[in-house]
UniProtKB/TrEMBL annotation:
Domain EngB-type G: 127-307
Family in the record: Belongs to the TRAFAC class TrmE-Era-EngA-EngB-Septin-like GTPase superfamily. EngB GTPase family.
A family per Pfam: MMR_HSR1
Name of this chain's protein: GTP-binding protein, ribosome biogenesis, YsxC
Gene Ontology BP, a term: cell division
Swiss-Prot/TrEMBL keywords: Cell cycle, Cell division, GTP-binding, Hydrolase, Magnesium, Metal-binding, Nucleotide-binding, Septation
One GO MF term: metal ion binding
Cofactor(s) the record lists: Mg(2+)
Length: 311
C-alpha cells in the first residue's frame, strides 16, 4: 500500500457520524487550537487526517468532544523540520507532534519475538534502531504493544513466567525493534527487588546505543502518580529521549479517579514534569480499546527512526 506523506483534506466517516479535526489559529498569538469533534456526516468542514494513509477509520470512535489547545512553543518539532509559514505545522492528531518529511514506512507488516535479555550487553547486536515501552504495571503496556502490531497475543510472550523481568525484543518488518521493558511499581514486589529492576533498566537507558526513544506510558484515566513523575523526571534529567504515551484515553472521568477527563490529566502531567525538560517532549493520546493514537505512534516512530538512520 502506498504511503502518503501529504494529508488530503476530506471528511472521515465513522458509522452515522464523521470525525473531523480542524486546525484553527486562535486570536491569541502563537496559539494553535486543535479541535477533534463528532459531527454529522453532511458536515463539510475540512479536517486534518493522519490516519487515512495507514488504515481505514472503522476502528476509531471518540464518544465525546475533545478540545486541545497547544501553544506553538509546546509542540514537538522533529529535527530537520521546517514549518511552512503559510499552512502552519502538520500535527499528528491527539498529540503535540509535528509531522516531518521522515514520516514514511510506518506500517507494520511483520512482527516476531526475538529474545529475552537480562542485561544490556545481551540484547541483539545487529544495530537496528529500537523503541522501548515502559510504564507502571497495569498501565496498558501489553494491550498497546498488541494494538501497535495488530496481534492479539504477541505481548503475552513478555508476560510468561521468567520474562516479566527481562528486556524483551520484538523485531518489526525485519528492520527495527519494539522493546518491552519490565513494568515498574508492583505494589506486591519487595523493595529490594524493585531497586534491582530500576538498576537494570537504568543501565539499558543509559548505555543502549541503538535506543531511539523511550516510550513512557502514563495512564490518562487517573491523576499523575508520584512514581510516574519520578520516572519521567529521571529520564529528563539524564537526557534520555522520551515520548509520553498517554493510555486509556477512552475512559471517561470518574469521581473515584479524581473526577478529571483524560485531557485534563494529560495537561496536568505535562505541567508537573515541565521543569525537568529543556525542550518539550513529544506526547500522544492513545486507547487500545478504540485504537486511538495507533497510527500516530507508528508515524512518530517512523519519522524518528528514519531521521536516526540518516544521522
Ligand atoms: P500492562 O500490565 O501494562 O501490560 O497492562 P495490560 O495491557 O495488561 O492492561 C491492564 C488492564 O487495563 C487490563 O484490564 C486492560 O484491559 C486494561 N486496558 C489496557 N489498555 C486499555 C485502554 O486503552 N482502555 C481501557 N479502557 N482499558 C485498557
Amino acid at each position: 500500500m502506498a504511503f502518503l506523506t501529504h494529508f488530503p483534506f476530506h471528511p472521515i466517516h465513522h458509522h452515522s457520524s464523521s470525525l473531523f479535526t480542524r486546525l484553527l489559529f486562535s486570536s491569541k498569538p502563537k496559539t494553535l487550537l486543535i479541535i477533534s469533534a463528532l459531527s454529522s456526516p453532511q458536515t463539510s468542514l475540512s479536517h486534518f487526517s493522519t490516519t487515512s494513509s495507514l488504515e481505514t477509520l472503522q476502528d476509531i470512535s471518540i464518544t465525546e468532544q475533545t478540545h486541545l489547545q497547544i501553544a506553538q512553543e509546546k509542540l514537538f518539532i522533529p529535527p530537520d523540520t521546517e514549518i511552512c509559514s503559510e499552512k502552519g505545522p502538520r500535527i499528528l492528531k491527539g498529540s503535540n507532534i509535528v509531522l516531518s518529511k521522515y514520516a514514511r514506512d510506518a506500517q507494520v507488516v511483520s512482527a516476531e519475538f526475538v529474545k529475552s535479555s537480562v542485561e544490556t550487553e545481551a540484547c541483539p547486536a545487529d544495530g537496528l534502531p529500537e523503541f522501548a515501552l515502559v510504564g507502571r504495571s497495569n498501565v496498558g503496556k501489553s494491550s498497546l504493544l498488541n494494538s501497535i502490531v495488530k496481534r492479539k497475543k504477541l505481548a503475552m510472550t513478555s508476560k510468561k513466567p521468567g520474562k516479566t523481568q527481562c528486556i524483551n525484543h520484538f523485531r518489526i518488518n525485519d528492520s527495527w525493534y519494539l522493546v518491552d521493558l519490565p513494568g515498574y511499581g508492583y505494589a506486591s514486589a519487595p523493595n529490594e527487588l524493585r531497586k534491582d529492576w530500576n538498576k537494570f533498566t537504568r543501565d539499558y537507558f543509559l548505555n543502549r546505543s541503538t535506543l531511539v526513544s523511550v516510550f513512557l506510558l502514563i495512564d490518562a484515566s487517573i491523576p499523575a502518580k508520584k512514581i510516574d513523575l519520578e520516572y519521567a523526571s529521571w529520564l529528563g534529567q539524564n537526557q534520555v529521549p522520551m515520548t509520553i504515551i498517554f493510555t486509556k484515553c477512552d475512559k471517561r472521568k470518574k469521581k473515584k479517579n479524581g473526577g478529571k477527563h483524560p485531557e485534563e490529566n494529560v495537561q496536568d502531567f505535562q505541567d508537573l514534569i515541565s521543569e525537568y525538560f529543556e525542550a518539550v517532549p513529544p506526547w500522544i493520546m492513545t486507547s487500545s480499546v478504540t485504537n486511538q493514537g495507533r497510527d500516530e505512534i507508528l508515524l512518530h516512530m517512523a519519522q524518528l527512526r528514519n531521521y536516526w538512520l540518516k544521522h
